[in-house]
Structure formats: structure tokens, C-alpha cells
Design brief:
With 304 residues, this protein is mainly beta. It contains three helices and 14 strands. The strands form three sheets. It has an eight-stranded antiparallel barrel. Strand 4 and strand 5 form a beta hairpin.
Length: 304
């Protein structure tokens, strides 16, 4: 604005000859300065639409980059070619592709197993008992309970025909512990009848033979034995100690017996055999004398 006002207020320049040399040079310089200032102010005014503004300057401490970033690929770069298998590729020698189709009709049966074909392993041995319908030597002496019945005869007039039962347990050490009860119907002698019974525990030892399923068990027992004496004819007198008794008498006491039983196992559980023993009572009477007797019996039982 100042330049324009000064230009308007200045007198028109008619010609260089009408001015002094110094005034002419000053006027030309003033015109040149105003012309440069006006062009810069007009340019800023055109940018903002608000007239001339301050000249643009870069921010403080700004340093332009010396060289623009290099975004070009490295020298000699080329994209990889399309992948293809190596030349002359082939499967390894003797290669056979697997056949995933099921075999016809299920295929052949698997080969039979033979012990040792997979190394040192072999199937475990079968159990030593309980797998056969017949008894074995291991069956007759295995631990467990057993029960049996007896049917026999006592070789003494006070014993005669008799029946009995036995039950017990065999321990892993082959020791047998059980009990026995028996009743003998007795006989008659000179008009007198007898009957005998005994009951008591037994202990024995089981011996199994190496071959057939045979068991031999020696044993001993200690218990009570009772004897009943009566007249063969009802009401007839009998001798009772130092006198006579019209109704009969009963006596008893401890008895010791020992013997052996042998059995054969037909199955792992059922068996049969024979029993022999000698009974030694610790008492007697004046009529029949000693009650010592040998008994033989058949036996049969079940082993659990």
C-alpha cells in the first residue's frame, strides 16, 4: 500500500532528461523494489484469499534429506521361477506303493504263533490245578477246606459197624487241621449190647504222590469217647462194677487215636479212599475189659 501511495503521489516521469541523474537512479530503484514486494504479496494473497501474508520459512532445525530412500529392489533381483520337481526324479529302487484295498474274502488266516518268535517272551505256563476235568497231583494237596464221610467197622465187640464224618483245612505248608466224629453201633456178647461214639480234633500232614493224584495223610487225634452198655433182653441184669445193674451203664473218657487216610482224586474236587486207625481209650470196665480197637473205613469227600 505504501508503494502504491508513493507511486501515486510521485510526479509522472516525463523523460530521463528532465530529472537529474541521481534522482532518476533513485526512482528506478524504488520502482524495482516495489515491483518485487508487490509480486510476493499478491502471490500470498492469492493462496489464502486474505491479501498478502508473511513469507514461508521451513521449521526450525529442519534438515532436508540428503538422498531420497532407496525403494528399488537390490541389483540382480528376480522373482523365483515356478516350482517344479528336480530333473530325473523317480521313486527309490524296489519301492512298492502300499495297497490299501481290503484283501479278498477277508484274506488268509494269520500265521500260527510259535513261542519265541517275538524274542525271549513266551506264554505263561498254565495253572497247576483246576484246569482239567481229572484230578492231578497238585489238586490233592492244594490249600483249602475238605469234607468227607466215613463208613467202616471196628474190630472189637463194643464197636462193630460205624459211620462218621470229618472236616478240616489244609494249609499251604501241607499241614492239615480238622476234626472227626464217629458212632459205632457195637455188637452183643452174652446177652449184653454195646454202642460207642467218639469226637475230637485231628492234626495231620498231606503227602501228595508225584505221579497219580493220590494223597496220603498220616494223622493223630485226641478227644472224648463214650461207651453205652445195655442188656440184650430188656430188664435182664448186667454186671456193673462189683454188682448188678438192671438198666445198664454208660462210661467214657479221653481217647487217643492215630492212623492214616489215603485218597484218590477223580476230579479236581471229588475223591474217595480208605481210612485205618487205632483207638486207645484211657478207660475200661470190669465186664468188657479194654476198649482198644482197630477200625477200617471207606471214605469219600469233596475238596473246595
Amino acid at each position: 500500500m505504501l508503494c502504491r501511495a508513493s507511486l501515486r503521489s510521485s510526479a509522472p516521469i516525463a523523460s530521463p532528461s528532465s530529472l537529474s541523474h541521481r534522482a532518476f537512479v533513485g526512482a528506478v530503484a524504488a520502482l524495482a523494489a516495489c515491483a518485487g514486494l508487490l509480486s510476493t504479496s499478491d502471490a500470498h494473497a492469492g493462496d489464502t484469499g486474505q491479501g498478502p501474508g508473511p513469507a514461508y520459512a521451513p521449521p526450525p532445525n529442519y534438515v532436508p534429506p540428503a538422498v531420497a530412500p532407496n525403494t528399488a529392489p537390490p541389483p540382480g533381483y528376480a522373482p523365483p521361477p515356478n516350482y517344479a520337481p528336480p530333473p530325473n526324479y523317480a521313486p527309490p529302487p524296489n519301492y512298492q506303493a502300499p495297497n490299501y484295498a481290503p484283501p479278498p474274502n477277508g484274506g488268509p488266516p494269520p500265521p500260527a504263533y510259535t513261542p519265541g518268535q517275538y524274542g525271549a517272551y513266551a506264554p505263561p505256563p498254565p495253572p497247576t490245578y483246576g484246569t482239567s476235568r481229572y484230578g492231578t497231583s497238585a489238586d490233592v494237596s492244594r490249600p483249602g477246606w475238605s469234607v468227607e464221610a466215613l463208613l467202616g467197622f471196628g474190630f472189637n465187640s463194643i464197636y462193630g459197624f460205624g459211620i462218621g464224618a470229618r472236616a478240616g483245612y489244609t494249609f499251604p505248608q501241607k499241614i492239615y487241621l480238622g476234626g472227626e466224629i464217629g458212632y459205632y453201633f457195637g455188637g452183643s456178647d452174652a446177652g449184653v449190647s454195646f454202642a460207642t461214639y467218639n469226637i475230637g480234633p485231628e492234626v495231620g500232614y498231606d503227602i501228595a504222590l508225584a505221579g497219580p493224584p493220590i494223597l496220603i495223610r498220616p494223622y493223630v487225634g485226641l478227644g472224648y469217647e463214650g461207651v453205652s452198655v445195655s442188656a440184650a433182653v430188656e430188664g435182664a441184669p448186667i454186671i456193673c462194677g462189683n454188682g448188678t445193674c438192671s438198666g445198664g451203664l454208660s462210661t467214657g473218657g479221653f481217647a487217643l487215636w492215630g492212623g492214616a487216610v489215603g485218597t484218590y482224586s477223580f476230579t479236581p474236587n471229588w475223591y474217595a479212599g480208605a481210612d485205618a486207625r487205632l483207638i486207645l481209650p484211657t478207660f475200661g470196665d470190669s465186664y468188657s475189659g479194654s476198649y482198644i480197637a482197630l477200625t477200617l473205613a471207606a471214605t469219600g469227600g469233596y475238596r473246595f
